[in-house]
Write a structure and sequence with these properties.
This protein has 20 helices and 16 strands. By secondary structure, it is of the alpha/beta class. Among the domains are: about 130 residues, Rossmann fold (3-Layer(aba) Sandwich), CATH 3.40.50; about 100 residues, Rossmann fold, CATH 3.40.50. The radius of gyration is 23 Å and the shape is globular. Bound molecules: iron/sulfur cluster.
Length: about 475
Amino acid sequence: MVKVKYSGVRESRSNRYNDLGTSGREIEEKFKKGCLKRADRSFAQGLQCQQINSMAALMSLEDSVFISHSPQGCVGCAIMAVDMYRVGQIHRGEKIIKNPRLIVTNIDQKSVVFGGENKLREAVKKAVERYNPRIAFIYASCASGIIGDDIDAIALDLQSEYPDTVMVPIHCEGFKSKICASGFDAAFISINKYILKKEKTEKQDNLVNLFAPTTISYADQKEMERMLSLLGAEVNYIPFYSSLEKIKRIPAATASTSICKVFADEFMKTLEEDYGIPYSHTVMPIGIRNTDKWYRGIAKVLGKEKEVEEIITKEHERIEPLVARIRERLHGKRVFICGGTGRSFAAAALIDDFGMELVGLETPTYDEDAQVDIEYLNNIHKNFVVDIANMQPFEQVNLINKLRPDAFIGVPEWAAKLGVPTTHVLDGKRPTMGYDGLLYLGNKIADQLENPGFNKKIAKHVKLPYKESWYKENAFKYITEGGN
Ligand code: SF4
């Protein structure tokens, strides 16, 4: 029988849901019984596209160019990743800050009618001749996919013309998936196909692939590397701030793990199949429970279970008195959390360290991994609303207005305008992970709660664009089929 390869579209895996409005108890039960249904929205407000995740994942690779075969608007979201890349350089001590070499072919009406292949060919040639890169990533878009421009054939043609630049076409057409994490998978599938090519390399005993997305701060990188070095590992930190050499070292590793549970999880499976590299796929190491779980996961793969328990005991002794102090400031406070799949569940575990109560959770997808976390959260919190949504701020403001939490953890734009104290665990500029990160985050949340003046003033002077009647409606009114 022919083995079916993973397509890179996250929806192709069973038991994955991305539009739902329910409660913690209900989603746990229905998932267990296998009666959750895939739903949709009859009205939606924006959706993060997978193309941006494919770009952001690779944007900090040395000596690369990024060619988006798309209309200009598609790369608008890249600004956040560009900002992270620039800040990351400053944190790493760079004196001259670079922008990524991001080029758009500008597919327009004419290209849609007559084809855009010539534009792409010209863009790649100019990019290679101007920058002399070691890698040229060529990104597909909805438009290039719909008109059928063959980015693979163009990459192949130009590869022979420019043998010193590795051409890597990436199929991240936005329409293929509503789950933006599919963009990470599309990028890794191409890295395997065009750079690693299933070639075997000599293994290095203590080498561990540590996969990290753009949003990881330098402080978090150092903390993760410190923790792994205590287990005797040498870390190959990829693909954020790495290089073609580091990518080529991937097959030499003895183990892999990822900082985020929806980043490189599918790729780590492929690495095990193609290169025999075992991996640990657990959680994002934010908060005591998650940090312990993440650490034990990779230690098990490395055969260092005894060593990790000794380290964890010492770390707990060091941080527990400090966590107790933060708990005094935060105990009993009600929280609404919104974030990507990895961070939202990590934040929900983190608030347990401080005795806070979860009242609402908004996250883009739900699957078997999320079910494990929900079972854990249902044991701690009485009940909470669950909104499975990629973006959709109109649902968020409706829920926050009804629940009136003491704190909101997530992108602050909308909750701040309702006067709720806000903070975020997605902080690419400060520590958030490991044993020290949770202390920093706890103090940050407490400081925000004790100083709510800024958001209160914003709420007084800024109005959200929704009518009063919307706040009285069922927040999940526009979810069809599987929703309530
Ligand atoms: S690739 Fe498609 S979904 Fe993504 S930004 Fe472009 S048009 Fe929008």
